[in-house]
Design goal:
The protein is an all-alpha fold. The chain is built from three helices and no strands. The relative contact order is 0.19.
């Protein structure tokens, strides 16, 4: 399985839970690469411009809960909330 295949599966699973991401535009990607000094993996640039991973909020559960445990949605982990998101628009 390629990274692209895994990313597409992740996006599909997130969509089934009502989560949606976006892609970064080619112009935004060029701007980001310039801000990072001109070096950025081509495969990652291709991934972020074609698969809607940007701003996708995902959560995971390391262990199955024991007993009657309910987690509030705000307790799930997310990506990009640190304020250091280089692809934030």
């Amino acid at each position: 399985m390629t990274v692209f295949d895994a990313a597409k599966i992740l996006v599909a699973r997130a969509a089934s839970q009502g989560e949606r991401g976006t892609t970064i535009t080619p112009a935004e990607m060029r701007n980001l690469i310039d801000r990072l000094g001109g070096t950025y993996p081509t495969w990652l640039a291709d991934l972020l411009t074609t698969v809607p991973l940007c701003r996708l909020e995902i959560g995971w559960q390391e262990y199955e809960p024991k007993g009657d445990v309910t987690l509030h949605p705000s307790a799930t982990a997310s990506i990009g909330r640190s304020g250091n998101d280089p692809v934030a628009r």
